[in-house]
Amino acid sequence: MFELFPAGLAHQEAENHPRLFVLIARYRDLDIDSAAQLHLVSAQITGQLSTNSDAVSGSAILSTCNRFEIYCEVGDAKNIEGAYLDALAAVSRCSGLTPVRLASLFVPLWGPSVAEHLFGVATGLQSIVAGEHEIAGQVRRALFNAQRAGTTSGLLIRLFEAASRVAKEVGARTALSDSSRSIAAVALDLVTAGPYFPVLADASVIVFGTGAYASRVLNILQSRGCSDVSVFSRSGRADTFVANRGNGVTAVTSNDLAAAVARSDLLIGCSGVGTRFVQSELACEARPARRPLTIVDLVPSRDFDPLVAEQPGVTFISLESVRRAAPKADAAALVQARGLVQQAVQRFEEQERSRVADVVIVALRQHVQGILDLEMERVMRQHGSAATAEQTNAALRRMVQQFLHVPTLRAKELAAAGRQDEFRKALDVLFGISSTGAKGEGRPGNDRPSLSHVR
């Protein structure tokens, strides 16, 4: 059994806060193959939790180029550690990594820290490039994928939707996104900072992938004047992807890939399908002897075999290269953004606490209404619509007696146990009834009711 929390702390935290926890991969501790395997099986993990965990009532996974996080709602707040173990077991079954290894790779957060973390992620505060735009869309897709798979829950939906709202708020009210850029943009800045083609318009480019990330990369290339772009996809979707992309964007087939690479200056990997391009596929040896090649790999699972980078004349730019070159965000913008995140966390926590109160209020109203309905049915059976005021009043008195029956028993039990002060405090909190008969602080001019008024 793994020891997740100090003794008693897990139960205390779970009872006081929303039943949420998240497992966050220590990304820098992940080797390339482990990171790739986690991303490849991310869609399977939530299904495993739904099938095999009684402790987890909902889950969603945020899997991006720089993070892997598993968000869960706990069915029973007192079983948060059981949910943690179930999550590790699900990841182990899907990835092949041992639970012991996974326990060392994942950091757990629970309670309000979950909202604070996700809101910070969605606003780009924890990205390689602070304030990046892409992450907000990735958070929305994580929720969409969980909803489509049927693994999410009401609490997780509210959490992720709140994260999207605060991301929009930070983008609109701060200069954070203005002073920072995307991972892809920083990577392309590194490309143009080299000696080979300082202007992308002069480069011949192949983009590997046809997903949302590839689309953003293509948009950046076109915005920088690049007019010679090819797209390759192992899935065969390149023709559909390049349709309506404008002149200069073409699809490359498997048969034509080696020849296309031989005449290209820049390869950008953003497919993340888990199958890496090796030397034989890229046929780097077929390139003209003096023609350099730059390879940009923007996915954690690596689109290119590391050995490709060792070929003569090849410059390799990885996510770690982007991390080192990422621009510093404006300090004032960071402070403002963090303040907005904290305010959003507080709003989310208050709203969730109110939802708990709403459930209790509905139960109380239904209880009282049920008693009233029973008495009214009795009156109608006995007297019909001709019931007198006295008969109606008698029915209402019976209703009050039924309503007070259980609280009266509880009061006597608590008094016998020497805990009568608890009952007095409960009456004061719920109904504003004081046992001393002191004047209340409610409506102007009205005395606060006291226990002496209750017969």
Describe the structure.
It is a single chain. Strand 8, helix 14 and strand 9 form a beta-alpha-beta unit. The model is unreliable at about 5-20, about 435-445 and about 450-455 (pLDDT under 50). Helix 6 (about 110-120) crosses helix 8, helix 16 packs across helix 17 and helix 17 packs across helix 18. Helices cover about 55% and strands about 10% of the residues. By secondary structure, it is α/β, with parallel strands linked by helices. The longest helix has about 55 residues, at about 330-385. It has helices at about 10-15, 30-40, 40-50, 80-95, 100-105, 110-120, 135-150, 155-175, 175-180, 185-195, 210-225, 240, 255-260, 280, 320-325, 330-385, 390-415, 420-430; strands at about 20-25, 55-65, 65-75, 105-110, 205-210, 230, 250, 265-270, 295, 315. The strands form two sheets. Strands 7-6-5-8-9-10 form a six-stranded parallel sheet. A four-stranded antiparallel sheet has the order 2-3-1-4, with helices on both faces. It is built from 18 helices and ten strands. The protein is elongated.
Total strand segments: 10
Number of helices: 18
Kindly report how far apart the N and C termini lie: 56 Å
Strand content: 5-15%
Q: Biggest sheet, strands in spatial order?
A: 7-6-5-8-9-10
- Compute the average pLDDT: 80
Shape category: elongated
Taken in chain order, the helices and strands follow as HEHHEEHHEHHHHHEHEHEHEHEEHHHH
Low-confidence stretches: 5-18, 437-446, 448-455
Rg over alpha carbons: 31 Å
Helix content bin: 40-55%
Largest beta-sheet characterization = 6 strands, parallel
**Secondary-structure content class:** alpha/beta
